[in-house]
Amino acid sequence: MIREYHPPHIYQDETIYFITARTKDRVNIFNTQEKCSLFFDIFERSLKKFDFEAIGWVLNTNHYHILVKISDGNMLGRFVQNLHSNLARVINKLDRSEGRQVWYQYWDRCVRSERDLYTRLNYIHHNPVKHGLALRIDDYKWSSYKDYLVNKGEEWLRDCFEKFPIIDFTLEEED
């Protein structure tokens, strides 16, 4: 009998979390513009519902990474459950696959320092290149990179990558 490992979740108020979730069996569910747009519509609604702030994000075809600042740590699990259940319902209806399990599970980590935050943000922005979805970071539509480019500028992003080089945060389950 093989036991699944379920990591413990540590909930803290007024904390930034790095959250990763992947689809069941790594199915490439987010494979159209429509589905990616639906993801972000539902993501935005979930953020508003729980009064969370998005700091960084990327959606790939079978997983996502997000950085969110949360006010109430006890709401983190409810936020993810709300996001996943609403996405599954809408995507399954679109695919005519009612009842299909869309999500495998999620992993979260408290961001512990400025270095941790910006290294993870750089990881998020580089993720589409890592997975072969884009040749360059700024070629990919479904990440927060372009928002940072507009709001912080190219020099700030370049300095951020130099000061906080990418670490591979890949979980064994994600590969």
UniProtKB/TrEMBL annotation:
<protein>
    <recommendedName>
        <fullName>Transposase IS200-like domain-containing protein</fullName>
    </recommendedName>
</protein>
<dbReference type="Pfam" id="PF01797">
    <property type="entry name" value="Y1_Tnp"/>
</dbReference>
<dbReference type="InterPro" id="IPR036515">
    <property type="entry name" value="Transposase_17_sf"/>
</dbReference>
<dbReference type="InterPro" id="IPR052715">
    <property type="entry name" value="RAYT_transposase"/>
</dbReference>
<dbReference type="InterPro" id="IPR002686">
    <property type="entry name" value="Transposase_17"/>
</dbReference>
<dbReference type="GO" id="GO:0043565">
    <property type="term" value="F:sequence-specific DNA binding"/>
</dbReference>
<feature type="domain" description="Transposase IS200-like">
    <location>
        <begin position="12"/>
        <end position="127"/>
    </location>
</feature>
<dbReference type="GO" id="GO:0006313">
    <property type="term" value="P:DNA transposition"/>
</dbReference>
<dbReference type="GO" id="GO:0004803">
    <property type="term" value="F:transposase activity"/>
</dbReference>
